[in-house]
Design brief:
CATH class of the largest domain: Alpha Beta
Shape: globular
CATH topology of the largest domain: Rossmann fold
Distance between the termini: 39 Å
Structural class: alpha/beta
Bound molecules: zinc ion
Strand order of the largest sheet: 12-13-14-15-11-16-10-17
Strand content: 15-25%
Largest sheet: 8 strands, mixed
Radius of gyration: 22 Å
CATH architecture of the largest domain: 3-Layer(aba) Sandwich
Number of helices: 14
């Protein structure tokens, strides 16, 4: 048994000014690996491919690695970059033939300039080489916008079940098990994808009662005989494409009518709770009031609307300005993407006091740069292997970085735009996060995997950004309508027969 594997990963925001050229993949912190390098780089990592490798070793099948890369979320992939990546991926698949099937760990929310459905486009190419019979099983991020083409071209889609996403490796293992059982003729997967008229931007973290109950419903379905896998996919709301938004996926063993029936019932149950999925951020004044009432420290504040992990520029100044203006002490902001400020700090040198204009350079909506006198406390190449539960074993490369101190507030200016979700980041800067009073992070939810265990309290706050978490504040032109919460839908429309 020989199974092709690979990924061209991207979560594309149509609301961000950050471009996505070919180099966004080749120079990505998450990696660009070809052939045998794929297995070396992803073995023992908490990724879908890490789970495929576990499955291959357990079942004794061979993986034929093609190309694996994942660019940081940003604007739709430039057309020429996509053509080059896809051509290499498919050429490698042709060269790897004959294979018995494909296990891919795609994201599911890739948009390409001129192509709304990146994964559908890639899967069409994969199918043209594999033919209609060989199984194609795909793990996805929970923020996948699943298209009809993806549903038609893959035999099984398995979105992850957790947010923060700490089960990629488990889902990869699940996919590998289904692949082996399918090829042995033990099962015949039949999948139904049901799309909801729902842009689901808030209220979807593991540990929240409603989200946990919804995921538990999928697990209860999976426990029934004849159901192979079931998942909810909130989708990625920051893509102005027809198919953005929530879906559910149910795969049965040889019973397409039951898959459809179960998927519709599950979708109805989720849609009935749609008001829970509205934006759930607080104003900074409320954070201050809560912290005054509750002495538990550190206070972790998330600027989720400027989350680079969702495509935002990562240089919004709202949170840093609030920390400085309120005279917070023992405070740290991680991180602001600003290579020019890093260079200015490097020129001034370690220990120097320097006039800086931090952040606010990508777009006016990100707020103006913060002008301040700062002490350069550390200059380094900020790079580390993640030990926490998210993307365990993978490397984050923030690049040349400067730790600056403005009064009682420290801020790390970094050259690369990355989401903050590990404790290794402050520790690599020489700061022990558990001893801080205040920690500000550029992350929506993923930080919680590592920071909830050390936090006295956690607040997700609203600061200015190009990517509001309230879809009603964004302008959509291509999205299907009606859709909640942009339109007042009282009941899920009956599906076409
Ligand atoms: Zn995600």
């Amino acid at each position: 048994m020989r199974i092709a594997t690979g990924n061209i990963g991207h979560e594309s925001s149509t609301f961000t000014p950050i471009a996505t050229p070919y180099e966004a993949f080749t120079e990505s912190s998450r990696g660009f690996h070809r052939g045998a390098q794929v297995l070396e780089a992803l073995r023992d990592t908490n990724s879908g491919c890490g789970g495929f490798i576990d499955g291959a070793e357990a079942h004794g099948f061979e993986l034929a690695p093609l190309l694996w890369t994942f660019a940081e979320p940003s604007a739709p992939i430039q057309a020429g970059a996509w053509a080059q990546l896809k051509d290499e991926f498919l050429q490698r698949l042709e060269a790897a033939m004959p294979v018995d099937g494909a296990l891919l760990d795609l994201h599911g929310a890739a948009v390409v300039e001129g192509i709304d459905d990146g994964e559908g486009d890639l899967l069409a190419g994969v199918r043209s080489i594999l033919g209609p019979e060989r199984p194609v099983i795909v793990t996805l991020d929970l923020h996948a916008n699943i298209s009809d083409a993806m549903a038609r071209l893959a035999d099984v889609l398995i979105p992850c079940d957790t947010y923060p996403h700490v089960d990629f490796r488990e889902r990869g293992r699940e996919a590998a098990d289904l692949m082996v059982r399918t090829l042995r003729g033990e099962i015949r997967p039949t999948m139904a994808v049901e799309r909801l008229p729902l842009l689901w931007a808030g209220g979807n973290a593991t540990g929240g009662a409603v989200f946990d109950a919804i995921v538990a419903q999928a697990h209860a379905l999976e426990a029934q005989p004849g159901v192979l896998t079931a998942s909810v996919n909130p989708g990625f709301a920051w893509a102005d494409i027809h198919d953005a938004g929530a879906t559910v996926v149910v795969t049965t063993d040889g019973d397409p009518a039951r898959a459809r029936r179960e998927a519709r019932a599950y979708a109805d149950a989720i849609f009935a709770r749609r008001r829970h999925f509205l934006v759930d951020l607080v104003e900074f004044d409320e954070v201050l009031a809560a912290a005054a009432r509750n002495p538990a420290r550190p206070v972790v504040v998330a600027d989720g609307q400027d989350n680079p992990g969702g495509g935002a520029p990562g240089d919004s100044t709202g949170m840093l300005r609030a920390f400085v203006q309120h005279g917070l002490t023992d405070a740290l902001v991680l991180t602001i993407c600003d290579p020019a400020t890093v260079q200015r700090a490097q020129a001034a040198g370690h220990g120097a006091e320097v006039e800086v204009e931090i952040g606010g350079k990508s777009a006016p909506e990100q707020g103006p740069p913060l002008r301040a006198r700062a002490v350069v406390e550390n200059l380094c190449n900020l790079e580390f292997v993640i030990r926490g539960p998210m993307y365990t074993g993978m490397t984050q490369k923030f690049g040349p970085s400067a730790l600056l101190r403005i009064g009682g507030v420290r801020v790390a200016a970094a050259s690369n735009r990355l989401q903050l979700f590990s404790l290794e980041c402050p520790r690599a800067l020489g700061i022990e996060p558990t001893r801080l009073q205040w920690i500000g992070v550029k992350s929506s939810t993923h930080f919680r995997a590592a920071y909830d265990p050390i936090a006295g309290q956690v607040h997700r706050a609203a600061f200015p950004s190009v990517q509001s978490h309230d879809p009603r504040k964004l302008t959509y032109r291509n999205l299907r309508r009606p859709i909640f919460p942009l339109d007042p839908i009282e009941a899920r429309p009956a599906p076409p027969r």
